[in-house]
Write a structure and sequence with these properties.
About 35% of the residues lie in helices and about 15% in strands. It is built from 14 helices and twelve strands. It folds into two domains: about 50 residues, DNA polymerase, domain 1; about 290 residues, Aldolase class I (TIM Barrel). The structure holds S-adenosyl-L-homocysteine. The site of S-adenosyl-L-homocysteine has 18 residues, from strand 8 and strand 10.
């Protein structure tokens, strides 16, 4: 792969599941090069145990086991919860004993969406989000990102859509995220179409420019706006003091000029905080020259966070106000709340482990 960002993500700790066929061939360079492709095909079909790869010679299987262990998968599911609405949440243990969560959402039409994490914890500090309370433990590797998809597939069937809306800020882990996107999209593997992959960011202008100019896969972009009032947004989302609204707006225009794709503006609705008519007008003003859809997400409660859920009335009033101004609005379903698997509720714990903080301590409990 000649793309420089793929080179940057290829580190020593990289597992095998996010390598391309030619890279796998390099790892077993004493073998004919088609062996790399065979390995890649096994991974893409969800098989990671070397012993099950029957078209590989026994001697090669043995040497792979000697080198990497029984399986090429670096992570494993230690807990699975299913909500009454069908949402599945997985607690996944990584090679170093840390944990990450992933969610599978199933909508009314039966469409399956993998909601995957890009970091353990998050450094962005959004004051309404539970993941933020953990702080950042570390970035996930591309393999750890990709393996979340395989774990969800094994348990609930292969998802057709992927959203980077789990734990972490994907643009703060840009190279590993980019590699995982390339792997998801690669036509000889999972072959997931670019329009079925959505990356959600708190709004990092350099990262948005990277998506516009450098990423070879034209994925969909969602931006967590949540307020179009600069001072309020700084209080809710500390990233706004580094990248204030005018700068974010400029990056979005740039993205739009290059990609010609509609952007989703996510708006977490906090009762009595950002749900007024004035807030609506500010949002409409921010969106005036963007080709966008506004996704209103009624805030999901997180223990101890100082916000209120918006009432049904104020949610409807806010949505109508935005619609009346001519913008398209979608309302986010409240899926997965029974298992703390909804937006902003991922905190690296299974429900029986709620009291444990930070994520690192979980290791001792399982
Ligand atoms: N860091 C990325 C992706 C993770 S959060 C981002 O900020 O976009 C995914 C979405 O959930 C974001 O839109 C975020 O604003 C929203 N969110 C966070 N906490 C929430 C909560 N408690 N209730 C509802 N949505 C929340």
């Amino acid at each position: 792969m000649s793309k420089t960002y793929l080179m940057k993500s290829r580190t020593d700790h990289q597992g095998l599941s996010a390598l391309f066929p030619n890279e796998l061939s390099e790892l077993i360079s004493q073998e004919p090069s088609f062996r790399g492709r065979q390995l890649f095909t096994w991974f893409s079909s969800g098989t990671f145990k070397f012993d099950e790869m029957k078209n590989l010679p026994a001697a090669l299987r043995r040497s792979l086991i000697d080198r990497y262990g029984e399986t090429a998968c670096t992570s494993k599911v230690v807990k699975q919860q299913t909500d009454a609405d069908g949402t599945v949440k997985l607690l996944i243990k990584l090679h170093d004993g840390l944990f990450v969560e992933s969610v599978l959402l199933i909508d009314e039409e039966g469409r399956k969406t993998a909601c995957i994490s890009s970091q353990i914890g998050c450094a962005m500090g959004c004051t309404f989000c539970r993941t933020a309370e953990l702080g950042l433990e570390r970035n996930l590797t591309a393999s750890e990102i990709v393996e979340q998809f395989y774990h969800l597939s094994e348990i609930a069937g292969q998802p057709s859509h992927i959203v980077f809306m789990g734990m972490g800020e994907p643009l703060a882990n840009i190279y590993e995220t980019a590699r995982s996107i390339e792997i998801f999209h690669f036509s000889e593997g999972l072959n997931i179409s670019a329009r079925r992959i959505t990356l959600s960011t708190c709004g990092i202008p350099d990262g948005i420019r990277f998506l516009a100019e450098s990423l070879s896969v034209p994925i969909r972009l969602a931006v967590s706006l949540t307020s179009a009032d600069n001072d309020l947004r700084t209080r809710l989302m500390p990233i706004n003091s580094r990248a204030p609204l005018p700068e974010l707006h400029e990056a979005l225009l740039h993205y739009q000029n290059i990609r010609k794709k509609r952007i989703t503006l996510e708006y977490v609705l906090l009762g009595g905080v950002n749900d007024s008519d004035a807030a609506c007008r500010q949002l409409v003003q921010f969106a005036r020259d963007l080709e966008c859809v506004v996704n209103v997400i009624p805030w999901n409660p997180g223990a101890g966070l100082p916000y209120n859920e918006p009432s049904k009335n104020s949610t409807e009033r806010f949505c109508s106000c935005v619609e009346h101004a001519g913008l398209r609005v979608t309302r986010r379903y409240r899926r997965g709340r029974g298992i703390s698997g909804a937006c902003g509720q991922l905190a690296g714990t299974g429900s029986s482990l709620h009291h444990i903080h930070p994520v690192t301590k979980l290791n001792e409990q399982i």
